[in-house]
Amino acid sequence: MPTLKDVAQEAEVSVSTVSRTFNNPDKVHPDTRDRVKEAVDTIGYQPSRVARRLRLEDGKANLIGLVIPDIQNPFFANVARGVEDVAQKNEYGLILSNSDEDPDKQRLAVNTLETEDVDGVIVPPISRSDPNVKRLLESDIAVVCVDRRMEHARVDTILSDSQEGAYKAVTHLLELGHRRIGFIGGIPRISTSADRREGYEQAHRDHGVPIDSDLIKDGDSRRERGKHLTNALLNLDPPPSALFTSNNLTTLGALSALSARGVNVPEEMSIVGHDDVPWAMALNPPPTVVGQPAYEIGSRSAELLLKRLDDPDRSPTIVTLQPELIIRQSCAPVSDRR
User: Fold this and answer.
1) What's the pTM value of the predicted model, to 2 decimals?
2) Amino acid 141: pLDDT
């Protein structure tokens, strides 16, 4: 199947020029636009909407892409719903892809979105120097980063304050008297993982509690890894008296491990998870969590993308939303336990 690169070679221009012709045709010389259109027709580049789009007055396909790391994660499912609702309200179609935090899968997703000639892309970077996001930015496709930061990149970004959320969670445990608090983090290359670890450590520093590196484990934001690392923490001598888990699937893995080992929550182990889940009140006990406004993160990222399409030259906007510590029944003071 012909690609953007094939179109560029046929038209004797760069790939970025081809992409610019599709996305911002008014910024491309008419002669160059004609060459790109002729190349599209000559090599049969698909989908056919590209050729049609070159003939549209505003050059828009009314189509946006969303690449998320894990569609099974309720947080990202809610983000996707927020994006979709705003897109539909503004008569934009949405193409959704799942990367599984895998750079190769993400690259294929980006390739597909370029082939579909989307007007813009919303994406959580899978690293702080994500090469696929950089590629999108260099191709002049409108981009909004959601949930995670890119370093040294001028790009619209919607975040929840992960460091503050972790700080609130760990402070809650420290104020209950816990001094050995296990932390199961996410993938270290991701900005939210680094931010949540920093919040964990800052809470310890502010309360004069030494940081024990044995209590800190890097996970992968998946249930099975959360279960495995919880068991590793329980095997320490002495084990922690409390856990802070860095996302909802990790929390479920931790609760599963605690149940299998016969460790009662909160009588024998307190736990706070980052991210809420729709079925939280069905768990026994309902977990204390750091809730993020996932739907709002998605809806505002879509709104920001549409603003970027209307005003491509404006300065990048970074919006940071505040998480909320939702106290339920999974934590108890140390004095009530031993």
Assistant:
1) 0.82
2) 86
